[in-house]
Amino acid sequence: MDRPRRDLEAQPLRRVEFHILLSLAAGERHGYGILQDIEARREAAVPDVGTMYRALARMAELGYIEDSTRRPAPDSADERRNYYRITEAGRRAARAEVKQLEALMRAARLGGLVTRPVK
Amino acid sequence: MNSERLLALSDRWFRLLQRLYPPDFADTMGPGVVETYRDQAREALAHGGIRRLGALWVRALVDSARNGAGEHARPAVKWRRSGNWGRDAELATRRLLRAPAFTFAAVSTLGIGLGLFSVVYTVVQTVLIDPLPYKNSGDLYYVWRDYRAYFDLARGWLGGPDITELQRAGGPIEAAVGLQRNLMTFAPREGVDATEIAVMFTSPNLFDVLGVGPTLGRGFSPNEVGPKRPPVIVLTHDLWNRLGADRSILGANVRLNGEPYTVIGVLPSNFEFVRHASLGPPLGADAYITFPIDLASVDPAAGSYAGLVRARHGATHEAVAAVAASVARVIDERAFGKRGLKLYPVAMKADLIATIRPVLVVLAWSGALLLLVLAVNFASVLVARAAQREHEFAVSRALGANGAAVVRATVVEGGMLGLAGGVIAAIAAAWGTRLLVSMAPLDLPRRAAIAVDWRIASVVIVIGALLGMAAAMLPATWAARASLASLLANSAVRGGGGRGRLRRAMVVVQVAVTVVLLCTGGLVVRSFDRLLRADPGFNPEGVLTLRVPMPPQLVPKLPDAFALQERIEQALRTISGVTGVSATSTLPLTAGASQAAITIPGAPGLTGNAERDRPLVDYIRVRPEYPAVIGMRLVEGRTFEHTRRPGLEEVLIDRSMARQFFPTGSAIGAKIPFGPDGKDVLTVVGVVEQARMYDVHKDDRPQMYFRSEYGGSRSLTYVVRTERDPLAIAPEARAAVRQVDARLAVAEVRPLTEVISDALRQQRVSAVMISSFAVGAVVLAGMGLFGIVSGSVTRRRHELALRLAVGADHSRLMRLVLSEGAMLVSLGVLIGAPVMYVAGGILRGVLVGVSPFDPVTLVSVAAGLAAVTLVACYVPARRVLRIDPAQSLRAD
Asked: How many CA atoms within 13 Å lie on the side-chain side of B656?
């Protein structure tokens, strides 16, 4: 059944994947929680639920994230949710992405595109 | 509508949308997607009311459609869901190797069944379907004389002028060839041991008309015919091989009946040609020479040539028939006083296969039925196997395999089994065909060409693979529907309802087809048995026959020939253990008699109807004591004595002739005018029963026996009755003839029993083939039934144990299980019976002395089938006895 999936590994992180890793880096989240995080960042359009879950499935296959235990969400006492948690590989991938973004940022600053430091 | 209801509705909508995703994605991610949407829906309803909720629904639809499609198309995952052919083939191989017993059983069943089928297919393809190996063979016709205006002969030889007239007619006829086959004494050189060979006398254009010529040397040129022709001969490849296959033979002289002939050509090894006969089987020849006479100058009243005609390409049968009819009018006027002689063409191939066709059609149908039983049996085996693998199917479905993938995995497995079976079948068929050809009638059309070639082998292998895939289709579609849920729900009653019905239906079909095959086999065997028991009118046991040709070139004077014949007979008589020797111009059952129309003037049986009073009779020339030596029955009078009475020309007639002309009184002493203008007068000295000339089981044309000296028969077949094994005296018999005159050839040395078995070859082959088909079908149906009953016992173990627990005894359960099998068999018989009724029509043509609805055969077939199926049910049903209710119920 197992076949090398180089085609997946070789790909850079997509934006939605980076957002997911960002959320999970802060702690375990369920699907809606991740969406709310993305919304809160106000950086990009909030992805569709289907798009996000396909990204989750893909990243689970890559081993960037994993299922956490099902447990009731703290806000609604009786409803059980699927929680996701970032793995070490996921963290590495996110850091690599951040490094790349920083490099791009430096390049943009040197190129005069950015006049004041962004933080 | 309150928000709770709206949210519940949303939930259903979101769950519904999950269908747009591939099943494995929906299984793993679906719940998360739905709950996230639910959260969004709650949010939307809380902040924007029903309008924002509606918008979310639409957005969810678009989202699911887009991402569902994306997920379906995702290449990196697709392979996992749908698999691929190569991987399926690899897995199927591994699976089959892991179950060697199953694989062996399936492949060998298929191999043997398909092998039997392919033997028949090979014969049917070569004989019935393939065109004859000549250029535009569809344009070749044989032309025959229809004498029925004079006497009962609808298929007579042509006269010489008929051929030349046909050639001259032109129009739709491109060329006409006259053919006559003669046995001649052949010696490669002077003084070398002579043998008898068949020589075809032909018009010089035969090879051009066939479009096949010599590979070595040349054919005849148009002027090499007639009284002054150069003596040239073309050899068949076979004869050339027997002479040592020497290429330098071209230009060499060989001797035919003592006269030198120059070899000008050798025919190719695949050259096959037979001259069709007015009566009797078509026969080939070892060598070809041209007519030493001019056909146009032959007496047109005498018919003695086969007429082969090539029509212009595209000319219709009707056009050829019209030309033949106009030629008939010319000949009729010239030689028959316009009494209604007719000529008609028959397409060469139709003429060739006319007698064998009905048998081959029955064989082909039987083969097809066997194939059907085989396919059904194979399908039910695969269904059973699929049932064992239902867990596996459900798991792979749950893991994301789609329907097509499961179907394909199963079909690939069936196809691989079929392929292996096909290969084995092709090998088996190559052997089987050789065996069949060795048993086949000697005059079976294209006998030599019947062999499994690469083309037939590949068809067989493809049929095997297709059969395997087709048989796997049924269980495959069923397997594709298997899911984990249904498996779990069904686990209490493993292998539930639907599939069981399918397998039972399959057994019913098998039994029905088996009934038809078994009845056919029974009838054909019975018919063959009738023929074997038939009394041919002579006693063939303990008689050796041998032919000694005595051509005029070797023995120019007739009295010398008669003296030699007498000396040969004497020499044969001195062999120890020999009790009687005689000779004949034509052995019985060889269809070689000559015919003449005769009448007995003044006989009391004359009717006044000129045609009825002049029947066509077979005449045979024999030496004294012939009837006694071969065991014919004398009804009245005496047979020929050793001394000829001067001035008395004796004749024996058969009982039917005696009855026709002398219905009440005795025929002894009656005078029969014979010969040209009836100037000879033959005196009847005895009445005999026919020694049948054509069919073992029935009398044919009336017969007359002359003394061999009358009309001068030179070449005779000697019959030697002995107390020893007839074949054991063969060397002594040869030596005896050699001692009389070393130049004489000895041919066709064989026991008289072989003459009969040769005459019955066709019936023997069909009896063997069809009965082996029938046995194969019975075995297959029995296996199917065995599987059903044993499966049923396994499946119903729990139920049966329960019945035992509440008071039923074992015998009651046995009856219960057996009645299931009996039910299937009865259904099969009920369906098979009307099919048999239809098949009876086809069969009628090949049965002798047995009606296709012969009650004895049909009842015994039914009884036999019942017995076999009962055993097939009883053996697995016995497992019921081993059920221990307490243990079984605890186990479940």
From this structure: 14
A16 in B contact zone (CB under 8 Å): no
User: What is the number of alpha carbons within 13 Å of residue B554 lying toward its C-beta?
Assistant: 26
Note the pLDDT tens digit of each residue in B673-691: 987 777 889 999 999 999 9
φ and ψ of B308, to 5 deg:
-105, 135
**The token pair that represents B137 in the structure block:** 């063979």
Pairing type for strands B232-235 and A65-67 reads unpaired
* Cβ of residue B29 closer than 8 Å to a chain A Cβ: yes
Q: What is the ipTM of this complex?
A: 0.84
Residue ranges in chain B modelled with pLDDT below 70: 1, 75-86, 190-192, 400-402, 479-499, 891-892
Q: Is the pTM above the cut of 0.80?
A: no
| A70 inside 8 A of chain B by CB | no
Task: Write out the DSSP string of B607-661.
Answer: -S-TTTTS-EEEEEEE-TTHHHHHTPPEEEE----SSPPTT-EEEEEEHHHHHHH
Q: How many whole angstroms separate alpha carbon B798 and alpha carbon B202? A: 82
Please state, for a pLDDT cut of 90, what percent of chain A lies above it.
5
Q: Which residues pair with B143 in a beta bridge?
A: B307, B345
Would you state the pLDDT for residue B266? 95
Distance from CA of A13 to the nearest CA of B (A): 16
B362 contacts B842 by C-beta, under 8 angstroms: yes
State percent of chain A over pLDDT 70.
Answer: 76
Q: Is A54 in Cβ contact with B25 (below 8 Å)?
A: yes
Question: What residues of A are in contact with residue B75 (Cβ under 8 Å)?
Answer: 7
Is residue B615 within 8 Å of residue B598, measured between CB atoms?
A: yes
d(CA B117, CA B375): 12
Contact A31/B35, CB-based, under 8 Å?
yes
Separation in Å, CA of A31 to nearest CA in chain B: 6
Contacting residues of A for B32, CB less than 8 Å apart: 30-31, 53, 56, 82
- Taking the C-alpha atoms of residue B329 and residue B166, their distance in angstroms, rounded to an integer, is 12
> Does the CB of B28 have a partner CB in chain A at under 8 Å?
yes
CB distance B184 to B201 below 8 Å: no
